[in-house]
Amino acid sequence: MISVSVPGRVNLIGDHTDYTGGLVLPMPLDQYTTITGTTTDEPMWHLRSADEDLPVTIALPVIDPSVVEPRWGRYVAGVLSELHLLGQRVSGFRGTVTTTLPIGAGLSSSAALEIAVARIALGDTSHNLSETDLALLCQRAEHRASGVPCGIMDQLCIASGKPGSATLIDCHALSVTHIVIPKDLEVIVQFISQRTLLGSEYADRVADCHEIEKLIGPLRLATENDLGQINNPRLHRRARHVVSENQRVRDFAQAIIAKDYGSAGEFMQQSHWSLAKDYETSNEIMDQAVQQLLTDPTVLGARITGGGFGGCIVGLRRRKNS
Ligand code: GLA
């Protein structure tokens, strides 16, 4: 019997910066997706999920994951297909998926499933693939399976994260720096509403960033001075979010290291309102949830987290008795 458990992630700060090679600071959660089962001799993957009505049966090798039914099987098929393209031999498998992560809540349940499938399929040869290559493979799988042009944040945080630390990721260099979250801080995650990035405006935001980059070059290198060259008001606001958010990730990480928690909380606030007003990936319910959390005097800052359009909020609190 083989069993692999992979965490979800929550993003502390740095949203909608990864797909332009910017900075992000997510951390792995202590909620996991687990696949348990046995390898088989027939070239098939049979998986049941405790959270889905229908099981998936996938014949190897997988050529087109985007047509697999039921839909949750596309993430599994996407990974198996990418492994096939790499020339990796994959055995058959029969098993079960369980998760303690809420699904479709913006905590990367799909990335956790992808990484878990890859680790099961690679088995003893897992060490042949670096954490970065594993994350890139699962990102390609997600693109092909779901059609959502996501960045690398979720997969790389999950592949390289350590419990109790956030991962400061430079999404251009694909470098990861682990930032220990001090014991006197508590990260709060609140689920507010279900969401899916498929059919959301996520892809529109990615397209806006491509437009901006045609005007001013790579957003990851842009500064406030470059914003003056963008006349379209919508693109101007989008660029202002990305440029300021990259800076906030740097500043937030420094503030955590320096234990300047008041400033860290303020950067989270600024991030929320930048996403709400300039990037328009929040909504009234999420804004109210953030404001509600802030009525607790021990909460230092709170913001919408992840892709947006619903999902979860994240807050930072000074731990009681510290
Ligand atoms: C989703 C995507 C990530 C990232 C966030 C927004 O979680 O999967 O790549 O773009 O949205 O920061």
Automatic annotation (TrEMBL):
Residue ranges constituting the GHMP kinase N-terminal domain according to the UniProt record: 75-161
Regions that span the bilayer: none
GO biological process per UniProt: galactose metabolic process
Annotated keywords: ATP-binding, Kinase, Nucleotide-binding, Transferase
GO cellular component: cytosol
GO molecular function terms noted in the UniProt entry: ATP binding; galactokinase activity
Sequence ranges assigned to domain Galactokinase N-terminal in this UniProt record: 4-36
Entries under Gene3D superfamilies matching the protein: 3.30.230.10, GHMP kinase, C-terminal domain
Domain GHMP kinase C-terminal: 253-316
Pfam families xrefs: GalKase_gal_bdg (PF10509), GHMP_kinases_C (PF08544), GHMP_kinases_N (PF00288)
Listed PANTHER family: GALACTOKINASE-RELATED, MEVALONATE KINASE/GALACTOKINASE
Family: Belongs to the GHMP kinase family. GalK subfamily.
Name recorded for this polypeptide: Unannotated protein
